[in-house]
Amino acid sequence: MFGSVEDYGEMFQDTVTQTRGASLSSENQIGNPVVYKLVRVAQDGRLVPATDEEMLEVKDLVENNENDMPIVADPGQTEECIFDEGSPSQFLQLDSFEGLFQPETAEAYTENLNSRLECKEELAYGSQMLVTFPDTNYYQSSSELPWNEEFVQSEFLLQEPVCFSSDGCSIDQSMDVSPYSIATGGSSPKVPALSTTTPNPGVSRDTDNICLGNLSIKALQETFRTTFGRETTCKDKLWLKRKIKMGQVNPCAMPTTTLTDNDTKLTLGGQDSKADCIKGHPNDCPVEAFVDHYSGSEDFEGEHRSAKRVRKATRRYIEEISKVDEKQQSNESVIPSKDERSISSAVSSGRRVVVTRMISFAGSRIQVPYVSHVRRSRPRENIMALGEFHSGLWEVKATREESKLNLSQSHLNNDVKRVSGVKSVSGPVKKKLTTHRQSYKDHSKPEVDQDFMEPEHMDSSGDSSDDSNYNHADLPITASAMRRKHHRAWTLSEVKKLVEGVSKYGVGKWCVIKRLSFPSYSHRTPVDLKDKWRNLLRVSLARTPLNNMGSVRKQGSIAIPSQVLSQVRELAKKKSHVSPARKARMVKASSRHGFL
DNA sequence: CTTAGGG
DNA sequence: CCCTAAG
């Protein structure tokens, strides 16, 4: 379950140092072993490696609880629970973190967190402050460190050991793993309750609502202390201000989410000034914690690491917020640190959390949402292709509206091509993806874009199926007309042809009519004819009675001569008044008599 | 594939 | 104009 900790003496710092160096060059490594080391925080805040005695003590302790620790899933993993006998409520947590923070790693990590948590919980019962340092990949003695990353996380709890106190609070927290899983739990549900454990809750809120602008570092530190109930040695004004503000604004201040996370202090032997900051991200709220991280140091990573369970955002989710995030990222999360590697971390926006990674873009580093390389929504093709593609494939699944839109694009494109005289891809593509309507096009004249050779006579009303119709004087170019891009207004000539066709072949013989009367109209499908007929019929029936103005036309549509309308009526009558059977007989009869 | 009818 | 259910 846990390995023994050998030399915790000087090795610690060396280790840290080494690993850090190593990690810098371990960019490619995917596995991010997490090594837990137990150390304690000395009075001066320094991190002191546990002594052998302490280790033994812990060991025993751990062994006793071994059975109860459902630790890790990783076989090769090792956990060590080391007792920190230093100050009652002070303990350090070592963790690894540098390096790529792959989502997978995050998962593994959180797994460990959970187990660690449990470990702690167990130990906490014994009023011991323990921390485990699991090594996700393999166990390593403190001396050998291929650690490609290390991370020191310390929890510096003051007056009230918030998470580890035996006041039950800790227990509840421990039991609830949700804090780790932001994604699942949304914004830390525990916050409210937990916040109550925040040291000096009242004090901080009230007293800190002051302008932090002019405060000195010392003052800021003090404010920080009153706000979060802990000391900080951080000398970064900006960071302090941020944290303080967060603490004031955000109720869920304080490290509540996890026993291990919050309040971490990185001392690393005090080498790194930034590392000296108490990093408790006062807010549990993933959002703040992540977005507003104090980057550039282990703190940064620690904060992320500690925050909750990082879960790969869903594709949809990512898309939804990706815009927002990118903005935020570029503005707030650019890591100004020395760290040149691509760090993936959990970044949240609003209440949502998304895994992001750093990338270099145009010379600057920005954080972008992590997206698996699985197929990503729709690739952005160039407009032309898009149109064609959509009209063909996407139409299938797209919503009605969408498909319409797509189709319209396609048509527009066609039009464009038509105008430019380019047959281009549309031909082949269409054939491939033919829809019922397109098939007709193929039937008539496959290789040529029918619209080009509108051979049919065009009467003055304008006609031809071309979109140029929109420019004809007699065709009102209303806004509505323009909106219905791919809709081709029926021209009078077409209507006439249709009526003629109906009279010749009968109502309902749309395919025949299409074939014989509209051979060159690539766009008018039998269905279109049918639809148009329906409309004509309706119009004719509607206004026929009292309206003398045969040419009165409905808004936005061409005028239909009363003559034509009456024709329509007649034809309709024939159909409606005669049953199919009778009609058939009539047809036969008429043909016998040489009619038709 | 055609038709017919609803959306 | 689109989509679909029926022949």
From TrEMBL:
<keyword id="KW-0539">Nucleus</keyword>
<feature type="compositionally biased region" description="Basic and acidic residues">
    <location>
        <begin position="439"/>
        <end position="460"/>
    </location>
</feature>
<protein>
    <submittedName>
        <fullName>Uncharacterized protein</fullName>
    </submittedName>
</protein>
<dbReference type="GO" id="GO:0005634">
    <property type="term" value="C:nucleus"/>
</dbReference>
<dbReference type="Pfam" id="PF00249">
    <property type="entry name" value="Myb_DNA-binding"/>
</dbReference>
<feature type="region of interest" description="Disordered">
    <location>
        <begin position="418"/>
        <end position="471"/>
    </location>
</feature>
<dbReference type="InterPro" id="IPR009057">
    <property type="entry name" value="Homeodomain-like_sf"/>
</dbReference>
<dbReference type="InterPro" id="IPR001005">
    <property type="entry name" value="SANT/Myb"/>
</dbReference>
<feature type="domain" description="Myb-like">
    <location>
        <begin position="490"/>
        <end position="537"/>
    </location>
</feature>
<feature type="domain" description="HTH myb-type">
    <location>
        <begin position="482"/>
        <end position="541"/>
    </location>
</feature>
<feature type="compositionally biased region" description="Low complexity">
    <location>
        <begin position="419"/>
        <end position="428"/>
    </location>
</feature>
<dbReference type="InterPro" id="IPR017930">
    <property type="entry name" value="Myb_dom"/>
</dbReference>
